[in-house]
Amino acid sequence: MAEPTALNATIPASTPFVGPERLMREHGLASLVRLGANESAFGPSPHALAAMRAAAEEVWQYGDPDAFALREALMCRHGCAFEEICIGSGIDDLMGLTVRAFLPEGGLALASRGTYPTFAYHVRGYGGHLEEVPYRSDGTPDLDALARAAARLRPRVLYLANPDNPSGAFVPLAEIERFRATLPEQTLLLLDEAYADFVPHGDLPAFAPDDGVVRTRTFSKAYGMAGARIGYAITSRRIVAAFEKVRLQYGVNRIAQAGALASLDDEDHLRAVVAETARGREEYAALARDLGIRALPSHTNFVCIDCGSVGAAEDVLRALLRRGIWIRKPAAPPLDRCVRVTVGTAAQRAAFAQGMRAVFAELPV
Ligand SMILES: *Cc1c(COP(=O)(O)O)cnc(C)c1O
């Protein structure tokens, strides 16, 4: 019998994301209000849609393995060099490349306990060892504790999402720069900026080549193209060269490349999505106040709502699902008392609000 490798055999089976499609099958639901994956129900820019429709006609062709046009556009947009950009099929893919290229088997990685789960998934999958630091009691990433742990453990890769998922918290520019400066020489900072588009441009660090930092961005969130699977990393030439040796040459499909490129031309659409998202966050915060609970401050397209206890958060999740509303909840303390809901369209938000009011009228929370 063919045997998986010793490493593979040690990996526990896990499902970091149970998809809404499975939930619908298992619960016999014909439709679901999708507010669990921070997708953008506002959809892609009409420019991107037109470009993707046109590219569908050419889908018999492989995509450009260099993603030349898209990298050129990103180079102009971010003021970095062409060779400092790597395109991947989403940040999840680029995270895997980072771990694969920089974390040796048995090597140590560091992250906040309960943060976005794909990093831990790749660390396990490539045979690394993950050390975790708890969030602060207010649910924000604890940069001081991460810096102390990094100084002590000297991890090969340190993962930080900013803005963070699931808290929605944003660490200001000066603090990030201070943090980066404290990291040991051999530590690579994987700075996941999936939600950067929801933050004012001036609040983010400028792009400067740094052999100690990989920054990742995506078209899945503000650009509304999660199903297309496309994102990018900006880092140093040296690190991109390491990624180039092992990345899947045809992993980023042709339709996604065309859509991503066209979406960069539509600033108006992006601005409208970001503005409507800010309004939606306010609505959710007001809803929480009405229900006598609290929404955490968010700089993203989702809001964490503190239900008071883990049990209450689980009850809310289940009761909403029975009503056909899909959200998620953070798994680790202190945020496991919260539910996390995506800012959707006005209609989705209304459905969520109605669901929450009904659930809170019924539940002993
Ligand atoms: C959604 C999300 C991702 C996934 O991005 P893709 O480009 O769709 O793979 C990565 N990181 C964080 C923090 C996210 O919330």
Can you list the strand order of the major beta sheet?
2-8-7-6-5-3-4
Output the structural class: alpha/beta
* Coarse shape: globular
How much of the sequence is in beta strands? 5-15%
The major pleated sheet works out as: 7 strands, mixed
Radius of gyration: 20 Å
Q: How many alpha or pi helices?
A: 13
Spell out the helices and strands N to C.
HHEHHEHEHEHEHEEEHHHEEHEEH
Task: Report the count of strand segments.
Answer: 12
How is this structure best summarized?
The chain is of the alpha/beta class and 365 residues long. It has 13 helices and 12 strands.
Structure commentary:
It is built from 13 helices and twelve strands. It has 365 residues and is of the alpha/beta class. It has a seven-stranded mixed beta sheet, sandwiched between helices. Strands 9-10-12 form a three-stranded antiparallel beta sheet. The termini are far apart. Pyridoxal-5'-phosphate binds next to helix 5.
